[in-house]
Specification:
Layout (H helix, E strand, L loop, with lengths): L8 H5 L1 H10 L5 H9 L6 E5 L7 H5 L4 E6 L2 H12 L6 E5 L12 E7 L9 H10 E12 L5 H9 L5 H10 L3 E10 L3 H11 L2 H10 L4 E12 L5
Parallel strand pairs: 1-2, 1-4, 2-3, 4-5
Antiparallel strand pairs: 5-7, 6-7
Helix pairs in contact: 2-9, 9-10
Length: about 240
């Protein structure tokens, strides 16, 4: 494996449970609505960075001119390709690659979408350079990540990773010239069993056990940051 690849233990180790998680994230489409207010991807050429098993590719492909999913983990590349093979979306494809070396041409992409993938603050500068390389003039990049400063989920996140500094991350994105939209959404699963399975892949065992012992039901409020930047017009 490429040493530059950042392992995603949740989806890499249990793609079936992560599929359940994808289905339970943001059932009202708050993230998509926030993105649409910034930039509409209708008719755009889109890259989905860290596309995983390709869950978001059909959603993006329903309105985009073309979509390329980029994923470093070969089993997930194959899984995403199998997903697309079952659909009539000839303008959507998956390519093996990394955020640091996107397998697309310079100035060829209108929208970059990255959801809980690679772009976690300091250290992701090589990927940001690639975003700048592939965006067309006026194109927009979106990065969706956890807002650890608020929500029940945010409190769980802080308990699991106490060294994580959300304010430092916010300052990092500000220095890079990105803007932030605060989005409130939720996890909602079809059963308590699904909720428990997802919590167990997202948190260390001790934290997961505490969550499951104290939180009832299969729904939790969840806050995220939608970071975005628009490429400047060409001179």
């Amino acid at each position: 494996m490429d040493d530059s690849v950042i392992v995603s233990p949740n989806i890499w180790n249990d793609a079936d449970v992560y599929e359940i998680e994808n289905r339970g994230v943001d059932p009202d489409g708050a993230i998509w609505a926030a993105m649409a207010k910034v930039a509409d991807h209708t008719g755009a050429h889109v890259v989905d960075v860290g596309c995983g098993s390709g869950y978001h590719l059909p959603i993006l492909g329903a309105r985009a001119a073309s979509v390329v999913g980029v994923e470093p983990h070969l089993p997930l590349v194959r899984r995403a390709q199998e997903r697309l093979a079952a659909l009539d979306l000839p303008h959507v494809e998956v390519r093996k690659g990394t955020a640091q070396r996107l397998p697309v041409a310079d100035s060829s992409v209108g929208v970059v979408h990255a959801r809980w993938a690679y772009f976690f603050g300091p250290g992701c500068e090589p990927g940001l350079a690639e975003v700048a390389r592939v965006l067309i003039s006026g194109g927009t990049a979106f990065v969706i990540d956890n807002d650890a400063t608020r929500s029940t989920f945010g409190a769980w996140f802080r308990a699991a990773w106490p060294d994580y500094d959300p304010l430092a991350v916010e300052r990092f994105w500000g220095r890079q010239g990105w803007e932030r939209e605060a989005v409130d959404m939720r996890w909602e699963f079809g059963s308590r069993a699904d909720f428990e399975a997802v919590v167990s892949i997202e948190f260390p065992p001790q934290i997961a056990a505490s969550i499951l012992a104290t939180h009832e039901g299969n729904v939790v409020d969840y806050a995220v940051n939608l970071w975005h930047v628009t490429a400047p017009p060409s001179v």
